[in-house]
Amino acid sequence: MSVLTWRNLTRIGRAGAAACIALLGILNSISYAEAKDVSVGVLYLDSQGYYAGVRSGIQQAAAQSGVSARVLDSNSGGDLSRESSFIDSMIASKVSAIVVSATSVDGSVRAIRAASRAGIPVVCYNTCINQRGVDQYVYAYVVGDAYAFGQKLGESAADYLLKAGVTHPRIGILNCEFLEVCTQRRKGFEEALKRRIPDAQIVANQEGTILDKAISTAQAMLAAQPGINVLVGESGGATLGATKAVEKSGRAGSVVVFGCDMTADIANELASGTVLKGIVDVSGVEVGKLAFAQAMDAAQGKKLTSKIVPATITAYTSPSAANAWRKAHADGLP
């Protein structure tokens, strides 16, 4: 073989190697581009302020993620059949992940199980399915511990009542206990309050989480139980409804309200300092960002050391705290 022929073959070999490297780079680029196209199905439990905050957090996180993220969202309105239909449609669409606030601890298992078995990771936030279902079918659960949340509310109420010299409070609760998270909030509230004020007594506990129903239920509760001097709302709608009911009933000054889930309207009531005396909250925006981050990790096949992703629980117990919240949330989203 001549030197010239050898050199030519060497050049050809080097050119071929370079072409292979270039081709691999193209293939890697294609693969990376495909990996950057992500679709996420998101389901909100209802349309109240907290969930508007979650939606904003998810949208912000998607915009800042550096990937082409398509968010397909809807609102179940607490309806199990709507939830199931949405999740089934997301399975058919082969989304990269599903983010959901579950309607029922047991009733929501079927749809979430179907998504998991279809290879679509599910991220819960705020509410989820039963523990066995979480263990088997859920990738991550973003939540502020509901019992600890309730305890913080009970501590806030005890601080105010003891300072006001109220040692025998009679309490009416507006609940959302068709959801397990609300039951746990109430249990935590009771434990913390009665540990500090043993003679505290819950004399009424009725469902009322949608604003209009919460107002009418609270008004009827105050009329039927005139000894009530504290109302507690287990949700944002319940809290605002309880506050409005006290005002409409002419009981401001004799009945105070404590509640859950900050909104712009609730911040305004707390800032006035008249009826509403304390709120405990987990930021919807923060939860939305955390949930989207978990969905991205799931889509990339990352492994978690724990399924529970804790969200920060914050108490607001003064007009100044409410004003600080309003300044930090100028868009009104919690």
From TrEMBL:
Pfam families: Peripla_BP_4. One of its GO terms (molecular function) is carbohydrate binding. Transmembrane segments: none annotated. Its main location: periplasm. It comes from the Bacteria. Residues 46-303 form the Periplasmic binding protein domain. It is found in: Periplasm. InterPro entries: Bact_Solute-Bind_Prot2, Peripla_BP_I, SBP_2_dom. This is Monosaccharide ABC transporter substrate-binding protein (CUT2 family). Belongs to the bacterial solute-binding protein 2 family. PANTHER family: ABC TRANSPORTER PERIPLASMIC-BINDING PROTEIN YPHF, D-XYLOSE-BINDING PERIPLASMIC PROTEIN. One of its GO terms (cellular component) is outer membrane-bounded periplasmic space.
